[in-house]
Amino acid sequence: MAAVSGLVLIAVFGGLAILGIPLAISIVAAAFASVLLVIPPDMALFTSAQKMVASLDSFSLLAVPFFILSGVMMNSGGIAVRLVNFAKLIAGRIPGSLAQTNIAGNMLFGCISGSAIAASTSIGGVMIPIQVKEGYDRDLAAAVNIASAPTGMLIPPTTAFIIYSLVSGGTSIAALFVGGAIAGTLWGVGLMIMTSIIAKKRDYPVTSFPSCREALKITQDAIPSLLLIAFVIGGIMLGIVTPVEASGIAVIYTMLLAFVIHRTTPFRDFPKFLLETSIMTGAIMMLLAASAALSFSMAFTGIPAAVTNLVLGISENPIIVMLIINLLLIVIGCFMDIGPAILIFTPILLPIAQKIGVDPVHFGVIMIFNLAIGTITPPVGTGLFIGASVAKIKVEKAIVALLPFYILLFGTLFLVTYFPDLTMALPRWLGL
Predict the structure, then answer these.
(1) Separation between Cα atoms, residue 244 and residue 109, nearest integer Å
(2) DSSP state letter for 263
(3) What are the distances in angstroms from CA 81 to CA 100, 210, 262, 394?
(4) CB atoms within 10 A of CB 102
């Protein structure tokens, strides 16, 4: 029965998606069709609707619209330039300093805005023309920007971990945030090392370090934005605030930043920010509700157990099993946005990981890391195409320039996957 239900699920979902039906509706229809094989239509409809409504009755979900609103206001302007200038102080004397600045800027802006695309367009739009003017190859400038943009999916605050927490049955958001911060930092530092090696070979110039007065002014301009990271991550890590409380603080602080301190945005734009947040939140909530119906359908028909038995039938070696999962997630990330991918595949893959002794927090970091790489991987990775567009180069040239960075990222993924203490030691030490 599980095999037949799985085939019906895939056929209905795939057919509706190909026809252009909205993803949430496709998921619900597929879930309903598969569960009809087991229970009567009226009971299937009632139970699926009940599961969908109950899935949204969660206090933790309040963090989603707050973090989205904070990111929307941060994207309104002024923040990117200040963070770029501050990033120059961090990376100014490292070989390939302008490319290093792009990486540091994406890490800072990505985690504040919560969007890889916002980081790629905002930071890349500023840094790529400067790099080209200073003699950097345009394809390398594009590759550095594309490869570093997804760090914002890992470094908190990020809604990806909140969604994973809810779908996985209440995995600690605080632990996920800390583990994700470590993984995202490993990603960014690795890119900086690789960029240094390439810059030395190509003899790229190093930018001059500003005077003490200029450095102080740049730091003062960036501190208000950087404090948001400190408030959110530091508050959660120290147990001072919950993720929901941190999200509320992020909104209030971002409003002060945009409307009072930097004054880059007029207050009359606030209703527009609320509307944009409402649209994005509505889409996420609909997907969450749809995933609840999907989870019920799969659990009722035994699909996760069947998939677990299938994978473990190939091998029960944890190394092989995690290799299979990683390869699957990379492919999924190439074709599907990170939110729907988490919602659909967490109920299928998490039981397999737990069966071989992988901690749910560790698996969450692995999953987001994989899906983040997928966004910049051909043939369909959205981050790859957007980054190439920002740099004004062909995707083919960007892919060639990205090859050494792909090797680095897969190597980092290997470390994150098979050396769990890298990402789990700090959350455990903090008691999260």
Answers:
(1) 21
(2) -
(3) 15, 16, 12, 26
(4) 33
What is the identity of the amino acid at 202? Answer: R
| Alpha carbon distance 296, 344 (integer Å) | 12
**Count of Cβ atoms closer than 10 Å to residue 208 Cβ:** 9
Reference 135, options 208, 210, 206; nearest CA is 206
- Cβ atoms of 357 and 318 within 8 Å: the answer is yes
* Amino acid type, 214: E
For residue 411, give both structure tokens: 């190597």
Q: Reduced to 3 states, what is the DSSP secondary structure of residue 236? A: helix
- Region class of 77: left (phi > 0), else alpha (psi between -120 and 50), else beta: left
Contacts 24+ apart (CB under 8 A), 38-41: 38/1, 38/5, 38/300, 38/301, 39/300
On the 0-12 / 13-18 / 19+ scale of CB atoms within 10 A, 72 is buried
Written as one string, the DSSP assignment of 10-63 is HHHHHHHHHTT--HHHHHHHHHHHHHTTTS-HHHHHHHHHHHHHHHT--GGGGH
Please name which of 373, 310, 387 lies closest in space to residue 138, comparing C-alpha atoms.
387
Three-state secondary-structure class, residue 205:
coil
Beta strands in 212-299 (DSSP E): none
Answer whether 0.85 is exceeded by the pTM.
Answer: no
pLDDT tens per residue across span 280-339: 888 888 888 887 888 788 777 777 777 778 788 888 899 999 999 999 898 888 877 788
Question: What single-letter DSSP state applies at residue 356?
Answer: T
CA dist., res. 165 & res. 179, Å (int): 13
Alpha-carbon distances, residue 120 vs 39, 137, 152, 162, 180 (angstroms):
48, 18, 10, 23, 19
Give pLDDT tens digits for 346-400.
Answer: 988 999 999 999 999 999 999 999 999 988 988 777 788 888 888 888 888 889 9
Residue 68: C-alpha distances to residues 266, 324, 419, 420 (Å): 19, 33, 32, 30
Picking from 59, 57, 50, the residue whose alpha carbon sits closest to that of residue 31 is 50
- Asked if 303 contacts 9 with a C-beta cutoff of 8 angstroms, the reply is yes
Distance (Å, whole) CA 335 – CA 112: 26
Sign of CA dihedral 94, 103, 182, 330: negative
Q: What is the largest CA-CA distance in the chain?
A: 75
Strands (DSSP E) found in 148-265: none
Contact (Cβ atoms closer than 8 angstroms) between residue 334 and residue 381: yes
- Establish how many alpha carbons lie within 13 A of residue 416's alpha carbon, considering only the half-sphere containing its beta carbon: 29
